């Protein structure tokens, strides 16, 4: 898998609903640079330590710790090796199209594993169950007992169930699948301008002039802060607004495309597929099936 600043494709292996990565050993490994993808990522440290950067914060994970990384959140990681000490970390990547099939309003939810001193008793119990499920998944992978694939599949769904039942909340309506606002208040005006004018024809010079920036300065600062160019951000907003309309109207794609600022339906389909892993038609079909 290539870890870079863009969407990372996550193929499903076999009959499991996740791609999983087991990292273990004693040798130093290369750090994973900042990247983001449409999949929901869940990491669990069974042994050793790891440092994970996510949404502007760095978390030190020890044995027994788990961390969820939501779709499109910029993150990076580093396994921390010590002399004669080994590590074992499991990473689950749930493809976004599988999540839509199971949770129709997935785009409206965010998963947050709270620090240990902030968990409720119910969350503490669920957190312990998460660790046990990951540990059992690893044991099954090593031994291949009878029906181990069925057992592993059940554990994948159990982990997903524990996450969304105990650690999920609704996103703010205008930041679904949009990188978190940063510590640069100067860019709030830029984001607000885009949110107010995304349905109109927009270009970099226009946005920069309206917000009092030179085009080059704004483009560089915005990309460094959000890991998206200005126009990539505009496209992401438009795709999100199209998703919201797909949930509430039966209008054709041509109408929706024009409503959210795409010049033609193909542009909507391409942007939607790139952002969410499936086409608007496929998403609408999943919604109808669930309803």
TrEMBL record:
Record SMART domains: HTH_ARAC
Stretches assigned to the HTH araC/xylS-type domain: 188-286
Keywords in alphabetical order: DNA-binding, Transcription, Transcription regulation
SUPFAM superfamilies reported for this sequence: Homeodomain-like (SSF46689), Regulatory protein AraC (SSF51215)
Extent of the signal sequence: none
Alphabetized InterPro entries for the sequence: AraC-bd (IPR003313), Homeodomain-like_sf (IPR009057), HTH-like (IPR037923), HTH_AraC (IPR018060), HTH_AraC-typ_CS (IPR018062), RmlC-like_jellyroll (IPR014710)
PANTHER family per record: ARAC-FAMILY TRANSCRIPTIONAL REGULATOR, HTH-TYPE TRANSCRIPTIONAL REGULATOR EXSA
Name of the protein described by the UniProt record: AraC family transcriptional regulator
